[in-house]
């Protein structure tokens, strides 16, 4: 959620045109204890109250996930309803399992929270079905908007050393594989390490980078136990620029998650023209096609993950085909222009005003003609 909101906020011009709005980040959680988090939430509510009194607050775009995010953001939505501030709820989670685990009273509270916003944005058709059929949000208030990511910045050209000019590329060059995401078993990190230990996978020409925050020491110890630590490098948490560099210098993104909606890591890989190997979870199979712009593997199945990786490396032309098709899919569906324009259309309809992109772009939703702020406020 943080990156989605951040991409939108980064895309605005520093100097706003007249008669337009500005997206402002509104943190509702903070990075401290539960008591501190409550203080951050109360501060956010106070900011909304001041904006309502000043008449400069057009609306609040609430980015919502499951667990405590649901109830923290739900309280924010309820306060906005009392104050008469219009809201748009943007669902970023496959929350059906979580919803079904709730007691009856909390399910009713969840349905009430979803009844308050002017509109509910979901990322794909599966989430739309859940919101309309289970949470009973009227279909005319639900919009499917697929996330988008920025166009990669071009890598600076490196002037080759004199001895490199006529030197051919080595025949035994390594294949560079990248994992991007929080380090957890749910994200499939353990499955990936076990896949690397499969005898069918040739490790002699592999370099595997695992980038993301989490318990690096635990997974490094597991890599040593499996005997794959010689090919695996852990980068830890990476900022946006470093993620872009890693993608620009890899051959394949592997994301064997157990549960996802639509990971931004996949969209960023498609934008960079990187082949994707992933599990068919969440909205992924409704937006990507196995064998065309991604290779699907089985959840929690190291042998399947290893086979998928080996297929991309061994089948002639497959990696380039996946990269080309994935890049074309990004241009059609996942670029920031499409995402920003679609979100802006919702804001114009329900808030009466919307922010603008940084650059003057043609009035079209086709990118081929050519980023925890938990919530975003539209300020006039």
Overview of the molecule:
With 380 residues, the protein is α/β, with parallel strands linked by helices. It has 2 domains: 2-148 and 336-379, Rossmann fold, CATH 3.40.50; 173-332, Glycogen Phosphorylase B (Rossmann fold, 3-Layer(aba) Sandwich), CATH 3.40.50. The chain is built from 14 helices and 12 strands. It has helices at residues 2-10, 34-54, 68-83, 96-101, 104-115, 125-134, 189-196, 216-226, 240-248, 264-271, 284-287, 302-314, 318-334, 336-351, and strands at 22-26, 57-64, 87-91, 119-122, 142-144, 175-180, 206-211, 232-236, 252-255, 275-279, 295-297, 375-379. The strands form 2 sheets. The protein has a 6-stranded mixed sheet, with helices on both faces. Strand 9 (252-255), helix 10 and strand 10 form a beta-alpha-beta unit. Helix 7 (189-196) runs parallel beside helix 8 and helix 10 crosses helix 13 (318-334). 40% of the residues are buried. Mean pLDDT is 88; it is low at 163-171 and 360-374.
CATH class of the largest domain, named Alpha Beta
Contiguous runs where pLDDT drops below 50 for at least 5 residues: 163-171, 360-374
Biggest sheet overview: 6 strands, mixed
> What's the pLDDT, averaged over the residues?
88
